[in-house]
């Protein structure tokens, strides 16, 4: 039992010191981590912030249509389909939307819901071809809740950095432990797959 406890403590320390720092910043540069992005003001007291990013060889206007149609019953999340099925609510996808831009799903506006599982994000801020900010949970994230912003940061006329910043306001010790050891790694796996999924769709369509 003593050896198990020592091994467990060692594993926790190793995860916090070596693995977690990479989980919360996958693909992001030091500058992207330190910069203040749209959406940060909706979660100023967040205890947990993660930033993932990927380079897409296309302008923001080619990426935006794929972002605004995300959500259950819409285009899904461009991630692992079997995991998306686990959190579906009603039909998973608008007919064929996962691999095409659907005109009917392009009229997103502030206040609209983005379904995920039994809940829904709410669009709290957006600027076409620049950023999309979503909130899940408590208003303004003053208590429990989560916010998510997708940012399109142009590098040049044909290259864009797609940056995804998640902010979580966790209160109790249990919610902190769940966030650090379950939500953050799970989110990283899903988020990085989503970023790659968008990149593949945009660059394939462009080509």
Question: What's this model, at a glance?
Answer:
The protein is α+β, with helices and mostly antiparallel strands.
Polypeptide structure, described:
The chain is of the alpha+beta class. The protein has one domain (2-206): START domain (Alpha-D-Glucose-1,6-Bisphosphate, Chain A, domain 4, 2-Layer Sandwich), CATH 3.30.530. It is 36% helix and 25% strand. The protein contains 5 helices and 6 strands. It has helices at residues 2-23, 30-34, 60-67, 81-86, 173-206, and strands at 48-56, 113-116, 119-127, 131-137, 145-156, 159-169. It has a 6-stranded antiparallel beta sheet with strand order 1-6-5-4-3-2, covered by helices on one side. Helix 3 (60-67) packs across helix 5 (173-206). The chain is globular and about 60 Å long. It starts with a helix and ends with a helix.
Biggest beta-sheet profile: 6 strands, antiparallel
Quick check: average pLDDT?
83
- The Rg value, from CA coordinates, equals 18 Å
Number of DSSP helical runs: 5
Helix and strand pattern: HHEHHEEEEEH
Shape: globular
Distance between the ends: 58 Å
Low-confidence stretches: none
Structural class: alpha+beta
Name given to the CATH architecture: 2-Layer Sandwich
Question: Could you tell me the number of beta strands?
Answer: 6
CATH C-level name: Alpha Beta
* Fraction of residues in H or I helices: 25-40%
Assign the CATH superfamily. Answer: START domain
Total of domains: 1
Percent of sequence in beta strands: 25-35%
CATH topology: Alpha-D-Glucose-1,6-Bisphosphate, Chain A, domain 4
Strand order in the largest sheet? 1-6-5-4-3-2
């Amino acid at each position: 039992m003593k050896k198990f406890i020592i091994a467990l403590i060692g594993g926790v320390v190793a995860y916090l010191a070596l693995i977690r720092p990479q989980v919360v910043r996958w693909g992001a540069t030091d500058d992207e981590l330190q910069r203040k992005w749209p959406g940060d003001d909706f979660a100023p007291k967040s205890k947990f912030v993660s930033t993932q990013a990927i380079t897409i060889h296309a302008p923001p206007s080619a990426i935006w249509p794929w972002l605004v149609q995300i959500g259950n019953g819409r285009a899904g999340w461009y991630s692992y389909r079997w995991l998306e099925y686990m959190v579906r609510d009603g039909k998973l996808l608008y007919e064929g939307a996962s691999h095409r831009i659907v005109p009917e799903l392009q009229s997103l506006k502030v206040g609209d819901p983005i379904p995920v599982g039994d809940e829904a994000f709410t669009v709290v801020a957006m600027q076409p071809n620049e950023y999309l900010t979503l909130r899940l949970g408590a208003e303004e994230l003053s208590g429990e809740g989560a916010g998510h912003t997708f940012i399109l940061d142009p590098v040049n006329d044909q290259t864009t950095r797609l940056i995804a910043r998640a902010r979580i306001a966790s209160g109790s010790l249990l919610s902190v432990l769940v966030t650090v050891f379950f939500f953050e790694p799970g989110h990283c796996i899903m988020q990085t797959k989503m970023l790659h999924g968008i990149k593949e769709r945009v660059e394939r369509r462009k080509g």
